[in-house]
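Just curious: can you write whichever protein you like plus the matching structure tokens?

***
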Amino acid sequence: MLRLEESSFQSLIIHRVGNRSLEEGLQLSDSPVDATDPALHAVLQQYFISAITGDEMFHFKNEVSLDQNEIYHLARLIFADPTTLTEHSRSIAAHLYEQSTHPRIRAGELYVVVFRDVVVEDEVTDAIGIFKSESRETFLQVDLAGHMASIGHQEGIPARKPDKACLIFNLDADRGYRVCISDHLNRSTEAGFWKDDFLCLSPIGNDFYQTNQFMNLTKQFVTKQYAEEFEAGKADQIDLLNRSVDYFRQNEVFDQSAFTEAVFEDSDVRSSFTRFEEQYRQDHDIDLDETFTISIPAVKKQSRVFKSVIKLDRNFHIYVHGDKSLIEQGVDEHGRKYYKLYYQEEG
């Protein structure tokens, strides 16, 4: 569990980082900004903490050694002496600029922040925040003086949440720290530079990770191998997806044997799932436990991508939430495909 509400940032420095492939350059600050005004401090505090949930944790990695990871190395120096924030934040900005080569990466402000009294899984510690804002909006400014009004406009940064965020907690330094991230603007594969190229992170195998991975594994099996090997239609696929989600929603602890028995009634399907799972582990180089505590946030996240709708041309959508036996599929004497639905009440 992550609690940021009681924390407070102590120092903040801002740089501007462009796209290197477009030769937009760097604009580096020489000193922290003055954010001591209580109203401004409150706005910035909310702006920073709104981007992080703390559900999924990562740690820094490097194939040679952790000290070869640039951001890990700089974080250690800042934690050791927070007065060096300005110097090392400039190096963080330079490293981000070197990685900002994809044409979709926008120029923006980079904020490097030191937090105090952050609570992570009941431990109180310090944290380093790295945030980037890329979005711009136009704001209207209205002034009323007596009976006269004037209006103007100005471009600025929306104060809802930064587009990219990273919090590095001063915990487990020898294992690459604990790190939370988010990227609200770009979630496509090519924009993975924030996690992979800039930060170079690996997920920590906590309950969120285990739940998220196993639900994704199940979805891949149902929509690919099960659909092809057993010539399963959409209704059959949705039935298994609904069963798997129900298992995760109704149980506090995951047990792999109980899961496969509850979701896959047919022994041949269970055997196929076991083969798929073993290959999935190898292909994705992941280590999954046979039992773990189910993470509710991970279930909510995965449930959003578990589709329970059958789309029929542009005319109909059928939402399947329960008993598969109440829906039949067929072809009439004219070659037209149809679904037959059984129900008791019309809502």
